Amino acid sequence: MNATLFKHHHERLNGRKQHFVTAGQGPAVLFLHGFPDLWRTWRAQMTAVVEAGYMAIAPDLRGFGETEGPDDPSEYTGLDVVGDLLAILDHLGIQQVTLVAHDWGAVGGWAAAQVRPDRFTGIVSLSIPWTPRGDRSLPQILQAEAPADYYLPWFLVPGPSDEEFNANPTEFLRRIYYTNSAERPGREPAMRTIGGSLIAGLDAPPGELALLPDSELAIYAEAFRKAGATPALNSYRSLHRGWELMAAWTDSAPAVPAVTLIGDRDLVVGMPGLRDVLDLQTSWLPAGRPTLLDRRLRTLCTARKARRSQPARARIPARHTPARRRVIAAGTAGPADARA
User: How many domains is the chain partitioned into structurally?
Assistant: First the structure.
């Protein structure tokens, strides 16, 4: 991978220091990572879209990597992320982008497409489908329906999860990536706590990960040592507040072209309250199946470019045309797992 392709930016935007990376020239594609990822997870896909004649942009989202996060955990909502993204686009002088978003990044991505379709003109979402705002937030659903050992409620409570991640970020990362990758035997997602410990509930890989080699794992672990786990985990702790803020858009849906890709080992498939939405769907796509994902992104970029050259046509509102979805039987859960 050509490291000289990537240009790093460190700017104070929207009230905080933000780190983002750009590559190439042309119509812009904005990549949003998930948890516990960094901008780097998208390097293969950024290279692919640059080779197709596009500009790629990938930020460390607020609280991750070299981007500062606020102290208040309620200030990590999807709408907060939209503000950060708009500040980056304005700084670069870019009016419109297509989004490619995974996991937590897709929460901000869907919010961006829903509230600012004039700036975010299409979205490819990995792992997270768009769903209408219900009468309960995800934390409320989890409180009522999740098993006692399910990992997400453990993330929502400050303290134990932060301490365990901070105590050994290398082991936390290698186990969480392995447990949710195609390298692990079996097909059922497994993210459970044992005795109040998530590390104890995750499988230990037998050796170096193909998904996240030791050299790359060291970069990730050092980033979380510097920033600490709390800012990244606050992205989960803002979910209820994000649900409250989206009340103004309850009766609307993203009115932009949308595609959802989900791997058949993605944790979302078994998430309480979402199984019915995902009956026919299957996600670590960026890193575990990069060739497959790169090919899909090239196809979508080419199609988008062709549409731009044609006369504008009336578009049916998105709420009447549900986002297209694709089942990728990749045995994986995200961007990093999309490399092979």
Answer: 1
